[in-house]
Amino acid sequence: MKHPRVRQTRPDDIPALIELQARVYPSIPAWSRRKLREQLDVFPQGQIVAEGENGVVGCASSMIVPWDEWAESHSWKEITGAGTFENHNPDGKTLYGAEVFVAPELRGKGIGHLLYEGRRTLCRAMNLKRIIACGRLPGYHQYANEMSVEFYARKVVWGDLRDMVLSFQLKEGFSYCGIVEDYLPEDKESCGHASIIAWLNPDYDPSRPTTIPEEIAL
To answer: How many CB atoms lie within 10 A of CB 204?
Structure first.
């Protein structure tokens, strides 16, 4: 397979993204064409895809938020405006990872790393302080009768358990910061919960303003 490349999302990617998301999350309703269009209208620079020889094979969607407004507790629906990104605020210092997914048949091929690296490029290019996301814990349902979600996440951090998402995020240099309960209630594998993860931009310069170029070289 030709090595995928990461680029900014275009309006003509929307049908492929809806189809791909439905395959990745068959039990969770896919985004609508309208919401994907709204995300592109609100913050086009924050929406990226991985493209292979046969089309789109992955996606990472982001928005900027003032983290203090959301740090204590929030759900995916609240912070993303149910996927409309209406809470995007370019005065914030945090790039919030709203969604990321990769074609199921291509997991483990480095596409997730490319998308995360794309996000780090965005964060540096805009002089943002950090990336924060609330990640799924798809392995938790197997242990939900044995341990709390907090203890499950700790065991993943310690290396005693492997979670498909959190283990990958730790490998990507993100720090585990705690649990958000009822983040995405329809996510049955995670029992609705998510882990907060953070990556601090080593190039962040507080003396410089956040800048959002029209195009960002990925």
So the answer is: 15
Residue 23 lies in a domain: yes
pLDDT in the model for residue 213? 87
Cα separation, 104 vs 97, whole angstroms? 20
Integer angstrom CA distances of residue 39 from 110, 151, 202: 25, 35, 27
- What is the CATH number for 131? 3.40.630.30
3-state SS string for the chain = CCCCEEEECCHHHHHHHHHHHHHHCCCCCCCCHHHHHHHHHHCHHHEEEEEECCEEEEEEEEEEECHHHCCCCCCHHHHHCCCCCCCCCCCCCEEEEEEEEECHHHCCCCHHHHHHHHHHHHHHHCCCCEEEEEEECCCHHHCCCCCCHHHHHHHHHHCCCCCCCHHHHHHCCCEEEEEECCCCCCCCCCCCCEEEEEEECCCCCCCCCCCCCCCCCC
Count the neighbouring beta carbons within 10 Å of the beta carbon of residue 45.
19
Residue 94: domain span: 5-200
CA 218 to chain centroid, in Å, comes to 17
pLDDT one-digit tens code per residue, 41-86: 999 999 999 999 889 999 999 999 999 999 888 999 999 999 999 9
Measure the CA–CA gap between 76 and 158, rounded to whole angstroms.
27
Instruction: Dump pLDDT digits (tens) for 107-117.
Output: 889 999 999 99
Which pTM was predicted?
0.94
